[in-house]
Amino acid sequence: MARRKWYEELYADFGYNYENEPYVKGTEKEVDFIEKEIEFNKDLNILDVGCGTGRHLLELARRGYKNLVGVDLSASMLKRARQKASAEKLKIELIQNDAQNLNFCYEFDLIISICEGAFSLMEDDQKDFEILKGIFYALVSDGKFILTTPNALYPLSNPEKVESFDPVNMREDFELEFEDDSGRKNKLKGQQRFYLPSEISWRLKSLGFSRVEFLGSYQGKDARKHPLTEDHFEMTVIATK
To answer: How many CA atoms does the CB half-sphere of 95 hold within 13 Å?
Structure first.
């Protein structure tokens, strides 16, 4: 049996404690932004890649969106999403699957992958590309893709703030300490990929996206009000097919 990746270890038993993390507190404002991008069209088919505990999908469901699908690798995270959906009597479809192996074809008007739900955690760039490719084929013509990913301009301009960043492979190594849902203390060694806007643009346009925009990424704030700079740890990418 293949050894589990660090992110598989992290999310194996983390569905409840994940929701206490500070980076999940801006969900309502993030969904405000998503709604503006799709002009509040509640008839759209929406896919969340790396949906976790379903925080964006559930908030969309609360606002009246009906055609909602989430994909995640973690059974623990999906279990928590189903519990929350059941408790509130909200309808979302949840699928356990690897984001590298999406099996959709021209089905969704909007795809989101926010807060490194799946992208940038892979151990090589080709696997990230497979995620993007699956997303492209899952979108209808003129469909929109919203992604957030670590911004390489940040560590390149602020090397003292990301001490373990390797500018050759654009990756950061880090140690993560956390308590899982069973109360066990854990320590993991993880890695994430930082991307330059030019890299993401080339990847997306080589697949066939017609337009790619880059904005800043502030948790819980409207990215349209924040042009991307080297001071943003994350960037928001909006691609139109």
So the answer is: 14
Q: 178 lies in a domain?
A: no
> Is 166 part of a structural domain of the chain?
no
Give the C-alpha distances (Å, rounded to integers) separating 131 from 26, 57, 128, 201. 25, 19, 5, 15
Supply the pTM of this predicted model: 0.93
Q: Would you say 110 and 144 are in contact if contact means Cβ atoms under 8 Å apart?
A: yes
Query: pLDDT tens digits, residue range 228-241?
Result: 999 999 999 999 99
What is the identity of the amino acid at 129? F
CA gap 124, 49 in Å, rounded? 18
Q: What is the CATH number of the domain that holds 98?
A: 3.40.50.150
pLDDT in tens, 42-71: 999 999 999 999 999 999 999 999 999 999
**CB contact at 8 A, 139 and 211:** no
Contact at 8 Å (CB) between 236 and 34? no
- Are 235 and 212 in contact by the 8 Å Cβ rule? The answer is no
